[in-house]
Amino acid sequence: MEDEQSFSDICGGRLALQRRFYSPSCLEFCLSCPRITLRSLTAVTCTVWLAAYGLFTLCENTMILSAAIFITLLGLLGYLHFVKIDHETLLIIDSLGIQMTSSYASGKESTTFIEMGQVNDVVINEAIYMQKVIYYLCILLKDPVEPHGISQVVPLFQSAKPRLDCLIEVYRSCQDILAHQKATSTSPEGGDKIISASNRRSHSGMGAYWHRQEDKSEQDHDPASRIGHSV
Amino acid sequence: MGLVSRGAAEAGRGAASAVDRPGPPDAVPNPTPTPPAEGADPGSSRSPGMVLKAFFPTCCASADSGLLVGRWVPEQSSAVVLAVVHFPFIPIQVKELLAQVQQASQVGVTVLGTWCHRRQEPEESLGHFLEGLGAIFSHRPWFQLCRERGSKSWSCKATHWQGPASPAASGEDQVMLIFYDQRKVLLSQLHPPTALPDRQAGDTTASAGGLAAVFDTVARSEALFQSDRFDEGPVRLSHWQSEGMEASILVELAKWAAGPVCLFLACLLSLISAASACRVFKLWPLSFIWSKLSTCEQLRHRLEQLTLIFSTRKAESPAQLMRKANMLVSVLLDVALGLMLLSWLHRKDLIGQLADALIPVADRVAEELQHLLQWLMGAPAGLKMNRALDQVLGRFFLYHIHLWISYIHLMSPFIERILWHVGLSACLGLTVALSILSDIIALLTFHIYCFYVYGARLYCLKIHGLSSLWRLFRGKKWNVLRQRVDSCSYDLDQLFIGTLLFTILVFLLPTTALYYLVFTLLRLLVVAVQGLIHLLVDLINSLPLYSLGLRLCRPYRLAAGVKFRVLEHETGRPLRLLMQINPLPYSRVVHTYRLPTCGCHPKHSWGSLCRKLFFGELIYPWRQRGNKQD
Fold first, then answer.
1. Is A18 on the interface with B (CB under 8 A)?
2. Nearest residue to B185 via CA among B112, B340, B333, B81
């Protein structure tokens, strides 16, 4: 089952969120970033070539022109292969783990997989980014030493940077699967985690995080009223 | 269920053409209850709706029907299938084989369930037969995997026998199929993410359980994969098959000869290291020289590496094996580059040209230094120096340069011979040649080093004198006992003499400072050149080329983790995933497998370096350490 919605990112660009529902325990989200536009490409190429031509008129050396062409080509290839991310995918498999894939414009894919045993929770955090306050989705990893502590925060969708409405969609589905996984896990603390969900302390002193409600009827509430305060 | 009790073997043999074997129907008919099993596992708690994971090798996806053999991991509720046992078989022999494998590999290999590769619609009788097999090989949960030939539709279920008390309530769990490439998982080595520095390494293994257990199982069950598909044993297995043994005679000979050659080389190397450790070389002048020359350091490092490579002890862990391989490749590359350098030098007869050019270059350097000193003795940069001190220092240094030039001219007939022998040492490796180059630079600029030491000592004395007299000027004193500055009452004549000396030193300061500045800059230039050479030598020494090559050509051998891909999914069918190896990024390969080196890193930070320069303390940023550190 597949459906597609369109959202916008924090800068106003268009994003497309594709959700694939394979089974109640396996879900995939694919967020496509705005494509590279012809206008920006032309602008950069013209700037570089004009600068090279300016240098050429000063130095009368034709090597500068060929070097400029070379640099433009290499720069474009490098940009497509190392910098420009086409889409980011989040795959959640109940009882296996969470996998994040970034696909670059040249086809390269870089994947990270986190086992379910290491995942503490998935939350939405606030952050101050230049002059804005933005929201981002992140995975909290368990601390091997302290059972209820958090050792690391892994942010998701770093290049797409979607806005809060898109994040809420992803967050809800993730929480469904995590709740299902904790309910059916064989570890003895599985049951306790659901009960103590609302008493969890916040992670970063700088931001707030969203409390997870077991009562599904509260999902229709205005999200703004659910912002928790940092402890 | 007569099939189950006695005739399983005959029925199995009768079903030799397993290709046409229909499989059990999807809806399970309630089987006649048989008592569950010995080997049932009452401890595993089952929650309703739990999803079990079955790791299935891709090489068995087209195998004929049979039994699934593998390991059940209850903590992750996952089953790792290692092989498929085909019909016909005798259960006793299967159990014997599994016991053998279990003993050889310490892995709990059991029969996990049945595998069915059918072409047509299923038959009822075989369905019962396969169900009944669950009673012979009792295992909870009992898996039944089934695939239609020629299509991609799979079905699988796992059943739990509930026991005679509730015959109709044998529960079923959902199963998720995860395909894995057996050969790649067998050969790969998992690198867990780097632990945080304040954690012990042992703590993280607990959390890295899940997939590491799968890799571990497959890697340790190599004993199960020894049988070939053409073997005529009592039990026919289907699993990953190797392509065959190496048939090349040269490779076999090389393997056979490796043992004695290693032994011989190890003896030779131990002789050399014993000779170098003998008492003669520990006498004072020689030991001092050895510690200063970077060539000796490099040679010693290489000797240690070669001893490790050719030692007759086998490597205990994969990390040690990689280290040995990296060292061997590094030594070979070094020698190859050295030989290339040697051939290039000889082809263009560069050694003769170098020898001819060396003396004029040394002369030129000395001449430039003389000009510099003449400039300093005049009015350098318009500054007014103290005439008398200027002349004294300038003449002192000029005399030294004169000595130096005479010394160089004395050595000139022997230069070519020395250089030729030095060039020959390049066949020991490029790093040795570079170290010798660095040492030659140090020897040729020895006079600059001497000037720097003279200038620095003078300046240091002056600074200390100034600071102490400045304290006297203010009426204070340095208390050596308490290591602090105390006030003190001086006599009048003490104050008078102190102030006089202070004034003299202050007015002589610019001259000394200028000489110190000039020679320190020259010394820093030489040190920078030497530092670059050492950096290059360090790079060649420590780069793990074998690991990088392995990452390039066989990326599945070094695994950072796994990645999953969801295969075509139809509703009603189980979820199928493909597990692939996620290779280690190059930066982590270099970081994990770096070879230990002498470590010529500067010991000082920039701040402490500036402080030492200001106070005139001697700096040795690239000093070779006496005791080796990793």
1. no
2. B81
